[in-house]
Structure formats: structure tokens, C-alpha cells
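call fold(seq) -> C-alpha cells
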Amino acid sequence: MVNIYMGRDSCYARRESIYISSGPINFEKAVTHLYLHLRDLKRGYTYDHECKRVAMDYKLFEARSKYLIKLCREHVKDEDECKKVEEIVNYVLRKRSLPEWALRIVEKNLVKVSSLETFF
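ret:
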């Protein structure tokens, strides 16, 4: 099963030439995931774990976003960090956008695949 958003071998790396670096879902990675979830919701599609294009409706958007809270609690085990994840997830679900300050986090955490990486 391929990761959709995280890692050099993720669907996003293969199909969109961007990805989130691998690792536990902390606050910064959750914010970056939410940015990509919002992107998918806006354009109406995303990828499944086989990297096939599938519809991104609000129900899937909500499920993927809430799953970040569960992943944080399983991997990070820092309740303060996971509470921040829960707060930003709830904000995004209410507003369907990220706050302006969060975009700086996304810029720092979104990895762009260079054309040389795809060549080798």
C-alpha cells in the first residue's frame, strides 16, 4: 500500500511532484496534510493507495483530516502537540481554509521533486 501524501515514493510525489517528508504526524506535518486535503477538495479529486485518481468529496476530506488526529496520538504521544493538531483540524473543517500563518508552515514542509530526482 502506497502512502498518498508522505514520502518520495508517495502518490503525490509520483503524480504531483510534491510530497511531505516521512515521519510521525506532528503539528507541522498535519498542517501540511490539511493544505493538500484542501487542495484536493477544491479541485475535486485525490488519489487512493494505488495512486488511482478518485473523487474528493467533503466526506473523504473530513475523514482524512480527522485521521490526522488519530495518527498524531498513535505516533507522537504528546497530548499538547496532538491537541494543537485537533484544533487546526477542527478549524479547517469549519472554515475550509487554513489561517494565513499556517501557509508559512506548509512552505517549509512541502518538498518539491526536482526533475533530476525523477530522472535517476
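Strands lie at 18-20, 45-47, 53-55, 110-112.
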